[in-house]
């Protein structure tokens, strides 16, 4: 179709030349301009075709990468004994009263593969698959000296591990405690903190790092 159109255009120009509508020089100029225009059109069409090929190649790569990701996700979710767990964190400071055991209330999930976290009970993680779990809590205390700092992890309201520290400067302090316990379906764990510096004290948010709390099945 393009070649037919070009041929007709040249024929019209030839007719115009023969009929005296244009001079030979004008005709030659028109042919030069026509040739240059055709070259630009063909170059643009070539670039467009190359771009379309590149777009198709990128789309094919994208489909292949998505397929790989979906396979990895399926593989992770089917590894026996190691998929159940959750990690949560708090996105704002929490004020801890003096000498009062206070449960940490969490606001966000990093992951939750077994419906362990419920926003209606934000201070606990619940076991929905029986097994052996590693439990880790990470607290960032505000930088105020004086008194003790403590973290307690409880199972069904009973202490299972406790850690105490005594700050000696005004820098913020990370406080980590971990344990491994057996959990049955319906068991729940909580992270509580205590400080006795004589006044209220914040546990501070530090992105997804702290305050954070996790349970992960390992057997």
Task: Explain what this protein looks like in three dimensions.
By secondary structure, the chain is α+β, with helices and mostly antiparallel strands. The chain has 2 domains: 76 residues; 133 residues, Sandwich (Jelly Rolls), CATH 2.60.120. The chain contains 2 helices and 12 strands; from the N terminus they run H-H-E-E-E-E-E-E-E-E-E-E-E-E. The chain has a 5-stranded antiparallel sheet with strand order 4-1-12-6-9, with no helix packed on it. A hairpin with a 2-residue loop joins strand 7 and strand 8. Helix 1 runs antiparallel to helix 2. The longest helix is centred in the N-terminal third of the chain and has 54 residues. The chain is elongated, with a radius of gyration of 36 Å. The model has no long low-confidence stretch (mean pLDDT 85).
Give a quick rundown of the structure.
With 219 residues, the protein is an alpha+beta fold.
The CATH architecture of the largest domain is Sandwich
SS summary, helix count: 2
Number of domains: 2
Side by side, the strands of the main sheet go: 4-1-12-6-9
Write down how many β-strands occur, each being a DSSP E stretch of 2 or more residues: 12
Strand-and-helix sequence, N→C?
HHEEEEEEEEEEEE
């Amino acid at each position: 179709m393009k070649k037919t159109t070009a041929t007709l255009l040249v024929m019209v120009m030839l007719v115009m030349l023969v009929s005296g509508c244009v001079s030979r020089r004008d005709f030659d100029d028109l042919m030069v301009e026509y040739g240059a225009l055709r070259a630009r059109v063909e170059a643009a069409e070539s670039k467009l075709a190359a771009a379309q090929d590149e777009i198709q190649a990128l789309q094919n790569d994208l489909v292949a990468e998505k397929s790989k990701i979906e396979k990895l996700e399926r593989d992770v979710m089917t590894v026996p004994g190691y998929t159940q767990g959750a990690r949560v964190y708090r996105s704002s400071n929490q004020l801890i009263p003096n000498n009062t055991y206070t449960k940490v209330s969490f606001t966000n999930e990093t992951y939750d593969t077994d419906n362990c976290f419920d926003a209606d009970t934000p201070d606990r993680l619940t076991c929905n698959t029986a097994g052996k779990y590693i439990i880790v809590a990470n607290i960032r205390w505000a930088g105020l000296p004086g008194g003790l700092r403590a973290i307690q992890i409880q199972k069904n309201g009973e202490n299972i591990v406790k850690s105490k520290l005594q700050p000696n400067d005004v820098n913020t302090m990370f406080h980590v405690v971990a344990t491994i316990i057996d959990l049955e379906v319906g068991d729940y764990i909580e992270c509580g903190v205590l400080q006795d510096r004589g006044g209220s004290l914040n546990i501070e948010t530090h992105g997804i790092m702290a305050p954070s709390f996790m349970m992960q099945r390992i057997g």
